[in-house]
UniProtKB/TrEMBL annotation, chain A:
Coiled coil: none annotated. Belongs to the peptidase T1B family. It is found in: Cytoplasm; Nucleus. The lineage of its organism: Eukaryota, Viridiplantae, Streptophyta, Embryophyta, Tracheophyta. It comes from the Eukaryota. It holds the Pfam family Proteasome. GO terms for cellular component: cytoplasm; nucleus; proteasome core complex, beta-subunit complex. SUPFAM superfamilies: N-terminal nucleophile aminohydrolases (Ntn hydrolases). Keywords: Cytoplasm, Nucleus, Proteasome. This is Proteasome subunit beta.
TrEMBL record, chain B:
It comes from the Eukaryota. It comes from Gossypium barbadense (Sea Island cotton). It is found in: Cytoplasm; Nucleus. SMART domains: Proteasome_A_N. One of its GO terms (biological process) is ubiquitin-dependent protein catabolic process. Residues 8-30 form the Proteasome alpha-type subunits domain. This is Proteasome subunit alpha type. The keyword Nucleus applies. Pfam families: Proteasome, Proteasome_A_N.
Amino acid sequence: MNFTASKQPENCLLGPESDSQRTLYPYVTGTSVVALKYKDGILMAADMGGSYGSTLRYKSVERMKPIGKHSLLGASGEISDFQEILKYLDELILYDNMWDDGNSLGPKEVHNYLTRVMYNRRNKFNPLWNSLVLGGVKKGEKYLGTVSMIGVNFEDNHVATGFGNHLARPILRQEWHENLSFEDGVKLLEKCMRVLLYRDRSAINKLQIAKITEEGMTISPPYSLKTYWEFSAFENPTQGAVGSW
Amino acid sequence: MSSIGTGYDLSVTTFSPDGRVFQIEYASKAVDNSGTVIGIKCKDGIVMGVEKLIASKMMLPGSNRRILSVHRHSGMAVAGLAADGRQIVARAKSEATSYQSVYGEPIPVKELAERVASYVHLCTLYWWLRPFGCGVILGGYDRDGPQLYMVEPSGISYRYFGAAVGKGKQAAKTEIEKLKLSEMTCREGVIEVAKM
């Protein structure tokens, strides 16, 4: 007998609730991913945290993975859904390789495939709770795009997910330009990640930066950013404040 | 050698009085009349070779592919009716990816061979299906090292260290028996197969 009787309104278009297993909320989540195009390809940065609500439970989650020869996928949101997406893409790339015809799926094709998957899941009210960043280089052409959990997709010279949209993209809009060198690109990404580290409560100070060029993909070992907490404005914060806090 | 099974060869669900199923034997004849396919098991892997019969001068080289991969670690070479072979490979691919999806590891070659053999055998059990007219040499590499299996139209599958099907299978088998396969690497194996 169903004690927790959840009543849908009479004119509801959703199917019977008892047999649905729709995603309602995420459990283990990753925070922002930031990426930009530079001279030789794409640079992407993401920290290694997996939060369980407000607890930072997992601190070595790799949220960026290579896809085939030409693409790099970074994800924020539900980590288990990201793993599921990786499984789909693994099968996709395998079938592509088995043709053995000299052709391979490039970033544009993978991005399109992901958009279809995300949008169709959303239409069934069972979304994959992720915001994805897909970047890559094929035949000299750089490509950087993003797909959200509701299927919104676009490509741009620099993209970010989650808080990155609010904190990192303004910086990128000001300071990004064509043909950034690798060092300048990394510096710019680190600047964005530092702001996110200061201001996003689900960010941790352990990040990786991934680079994808025509030659292939490399992902840096985890490292941490230098932070500065001695700003004079934050010294003695209670001075002049009425009360004990 | 060609025995006429009058009346007992009309359907794959009929046995002859001497215990043979003629339709399956006829299917094997289709394989015996096709281009030769060889497979050998070397120390560190499998080498497969296919005799490329050029059906027409206008055909582009590189089409009519008869060695196809099934998964990252295994592949199949097909002899006989090419369309039937395509179906078997598609089934093998599907079995391999579903095993990987469920168990998280690449399908062991023995398991794959069993599944392919079961599928081929399935088509010899119903009167509304015809047996596959192709023999398949399946090679793969798993935890137990390289393995080579051959699946015949009857659904039998055996493990071999050297196998051949098709027109020149007798000659090929004689050649393979002369080779010392346990000491050969794949690189050397490729040369030997090409010679055959």
